[in-house]
Design goal:
- Keywords: Hydrolase, Signal.
- The chain is of the alpha/beta class.
- The protein has one domain: Rossmann fold (3-Layer(aba) Sandwich), CATH 3.40.50.
- It has 7 helices and 12 strands.
- Strands 1-2-4-3-5-6-7-12-11-10 form a 10-stranded mixed β-sheet, sandwiched between helices. A two-stranded antiparallel sheet has the order 8-9.
- Strand 1 and strand 2 form a beta hairpin.
- Helix 4 packs across helix 5.
- The two termini are 19 Å apart.
- The N terminus is likely disordered.
C-alpha cells in the first residue's frame, strides 16, 4: 500500500458498511445511480480512500468490465484510492461528431461525469481535489471532452489511445494538466485517425496544434520515461499545467503504469 491504513480499521469499516443506508449500498457489483446514469466503485480496505481514479471504458465496454480488470483494481489498491468506473448510456459515449450522434438519445456526458463526481464526494467522502480522470479508446475521447469542458474539476487527465471525433473543438477552455498516450502501431484508433461510417476519428496532431495555440503553451521539451517517447509543452508557470504526449511502439493498448506515473508525479 502507498499509504498506511487509516485509524479506522478494517473491522470498523466493515461495521460501518453493515449499517450503511440503501443510498450507499452500491459498489463493484452493484450500480450507483445518479441522474441520467450509473457508475460502479471499488474502495480499498481500511477507511476513506486517499483520492479516486475515474475510468471511462472503450466502445461497447461496461463499468462491470472495468471492475473485472484486475490491473486497474490492483492499481487503485496500491495507491490506496477508489476506482470509479463510468458507464455509457448506450454502447458508446454520445460525443460530438460520433457515429451515434443524432441516432440514439443524447446524454450530456460532461454533466453526467460531474454528477458522478459530486455523488462520489457526498456518498463516500472522498477528497474532490484528489481525483484523476482517465479513459481508453472511446473513453479517451470522453477524457478529452471532459478536459476541455470542465478541466478544473480533476487535477489531471490521462486520455489513452483516443481523441476527439472528426476534428477538435475550436478551443479548449481549460488549464488542465493533460498527458495523452498512444501506440505508434495502433490500427484501431491510429494516431492520424480513420474513417468510421459517416464520420472519422480525429487526428492527434490536430489536437496538439489546437491545444498548444489555444492555451499559449511554451516550446516543447523532451521528458524521460521508460519505454515511452514523451514531449511536453508547458503552460504558464504560475498554473503548473501542461500538455504531454507520449507514444509507445505497441498497438491499441495501455498499461496501468501510465496512470500510476501521472498520479505519483502530479498529485497536488
Amino acid at each position: 500500500m502507498r499509504h498506511a491504513l487509516r485509524t479506522l480499521g478494517i473491522a470498523a469499516a466493515a461495521s460501518l458498511l453493515a449499517f450503511a443506508s440503501p443510498a450507499t449500498a452500491c459498489g463493484e457489483d452493484t450500480d450507483c445511480a445518479v441522474e441520467g446514469g450509473t457508475y460502479r466503485i471499488h474502495l480499498p480496505e481500511g477507511g476513506t480512500p486517499d483520492g479516486a481514479i475515474f475510468f471511462a471504458h472503450g466502445y461497447r465496454g461496461t463499468a462491470g468490465g472495468t471492475m473485472r480488470n484486475e490491473r486497474l483494481v490492483g492499481l487503485a489498491d496500491d495507491l490506496d484510492v477508489a476506482l470509479v468506473a463510468l458507464q455509457s448510456a448506450e454502447e458508446d459515449w454520445t460525443l460530438p461528431n460520433s457515429p451515434n450522434a443524432g441516432r440514439v438519445p443524447q446524454r450530456d456526458e460532461v454533466a453526467y461525469v460531474l454528477r458522478v463526481k459530486d455523488d462520489v464526494v457526498t456518498r463516500f467522502g472522498i477528497d474532490p481535489d484528489r481525483m484523476l480522470f482517465a479513459g481508453f479508446s472511446a473513453g479517451g475521447m470522453l477524457t478529452w471532452t471532459v478536459a476541455c469542458s470542465a478541466g478544473d474539476v480533476f487535477f489531471a487527465f490521462v486520455p489513452l489511445s483516443g481523441t476527439f471525433w472528426k476534428t477538435p473543438p475550436d478551443r479548449c477552455d481549460t488549464d488542465a494538466a493533460i498527458t495523452h498516450y498512444h501506440g505508434t502501431s495502433d490500427t484501431v484508433v491510429p494516431i492520424e485517425g480513420r474513417a468510421i461510417g459517416p464520420t472519422r476519428q480525429g487526428d492527434m496532431n490536430d489536437v496538439i496544434a489546437m491545444y498548444r495555440a489555444d492555451r499559449g503553451l511554451s516550446a516543447p521539451v523532451r521528458v524521460e520515461a521508460t519505454g515511452l517517447e514523451c514531449t511536453r509543452w508547458p503552460g504558464p508557470p504560475e498554473l503548473g499545467t501542461y500538455l504531454e504526449y507520449c507514444t509507445h511502439p505497441g498497438g491499441h493498448r495501455f498499461s496501468v503504469d501510465y496512470i500510476r506515473r501521472i498520479w505519483e508525479r502530479d498529485l497536488p
